[in-house]
Specification:
This protein is α+β, with helices and mostly antiparallel strands. It folds into four domains: 3-81, Orthogonal Bundle (Arc Repressor Mutant, subunit A), CATH 1.10.10; 86-134, no CATH class; 151-239, SH3 type barrels (Roll); 244-353, Alpha-Beta Plaits, CATH 3.30.70. Helix content is 39%, strand content 22%. The chain has a five-stranded antiparallel beta sheet with strand order 7-6-5-4-8, covered by helices on one side. The chain has a four-stranded antiparallel beta sheet with strand order 10-11-9-12. A three-stranded antiparallel beta sheet has the order 1-3-2. The longest helix is centred in the last third of the chain and has 35 residues, at 318-352. It is elongated and about 95 Å long. The protein starts with a helix and ends with a helix.
């Protein structure tokens, strides 16, 4: 029996005992639903195969033998492996690609059979097969590798979250200090190629972000984690500006004003700084535009603006303008010294020649 034929038959059946159907009723329903006709003898063979346990697991059909004629209905516990549309199968395959770029291959453990079904279904349908072959998800533009995370540590963190247990961990901070901690994990967030555990030590603590690649060891504690019924992961991510650190003493969302060359304006047109962003275009002769937006001054704002080089100039707030000027001046000195040294060497070499 082909996979597509088996799936077509399974889609005709119900999951409840009272919905069970005889082989003859199934043939009638098939012939009323599909263009290709099904004969009773073929249907009986299909039903026999689907109601028998195999090497891949339990049968997907439950057989009711209480009456003279056998009646069949779906075994609910097995349906997650079978009843999915080709679009759902493609979504599952692509979703696994995205997850594996952050979580690694371990993310597929325990769902191998479902993924096998999804892969088969995608390959059976020409449209989804083409999409599968022509859709890819890639990392950031400069192609940095994801942070290396120990599979056992990730498994322990996932277990602690799922079982609501304390997490015992040995952690190395950014400065190199090693400490042992017992924390209540609140969530796991993927960002910029790595994973962060959001956790607290006490009920009144603010969540701390622990990068998984800095874990030396982790294991689930037998103690229950402290419950935080007031904590909402999505609300926290939004309020923390996607887990970014806000710098300085400015108001939470100061009005940032930037002068942008028109050639670089697409960065702000295609991906605005905020919903309230406003772009004031100058005259046709003026190569600059003014971009304003109320945004937090986070740790990643300066690197983003610096990445645009001479195509942007920060105008406001004054504190950000001053920080950018100092930051870029220090960086420019590195290159200025090397250029001066290189020019001097070239002059000396030329005079010797």
């Amino acid at each position: 029996m082909k996979f597509a034929e088996a799936l077509s038959l399974l889609k005709l059946l119900g999951t409840r005992h009272e919905d069970a159907m005889t082989a003859q009723a199934i043939v009638v329903k098939w012939n009323n639903t599909y263009a290709e006709k099904l004969h009773l003898r073929t249907a009986q063979r299909y039903l026999s195969e689907l109601s028998s346990d195999g090497v891949d697991g339990r049968a997907v059909l439950e057989v009711d033998t209480s009456s003279k004629e056998r009646r069949y209905h779906l075994r609910l516990s097995e349906m997650a492996n079978w009843l999915m549309t080709d679009e759902a199968a493609l979504l599952q395959v692509l979703s696994l690609q995205v997850l594996q770029t952050t979580f690694g291959s371990e993310v597929a453990q325990g769902i191998e059979r479902q993924m096998d079904v999804a892969q088969h279904l995608v390959q059976e349908q020409r449209r989804t097969q083409r999409l599968r072959e022509r859709v890819r998800i890639v990392p950031d533009g400069i192609g940095r590798l994801r942070a290396r995370i120990d599979a056992q540590i990730l498994a322990s963190v996932m277990d602690a979250l799922a079982s609501e247990q304390l997490l015992s961990m040995e952690y190395k901070s950014l400065s190199g200090n090693v400490s042992n901690k017992h924390v209540s994990p609140l969530g796991l967030v993927a960002k910029d190629g790595t994973l962060y555990v959001l956790a607290v030590t006490g009920l009144s603590d603010k969540p701390t972000h622990y990068a998984l690649h800095r874990f030396i060891a982790a294991q689930v504690s037998p103690q229950k984690a402290q419950s935080r019924d007031d904590f909402d992961l999505d609300r926290y991510i939004h309020a923390s500006h996607q887990l970014s650190h806000v710098l300085g003493a400015e108001p939470e969302n100061p009005m940032v004003k930037i002068k942008v060359k028109k050639s670089a304006l697409f960065h702000f047109l295609e991906r605005p700084l905020s919903e309230q962003q406003v772009i004031q275009k100058m005259t046709d002769e003026d190569p600059w535009a003014i971009v304003t937006a109320p945004i937090p001054l986070t740790i990643l704002l300066k690197p983003f603006l610096a990445s645009l080089g001479p195509d942007v100039e920060v105008l406001e707030p004054a504190s950000l303008r001053q920080e950018m000027a100092q930051w870029l001046n220090v960086a420019a000195q590195y290159y200025k010294e090397k250029i001066t040294r290189s020019v001097s060497t070239s002059i000396i070499d030329a005079s010797k020649a």
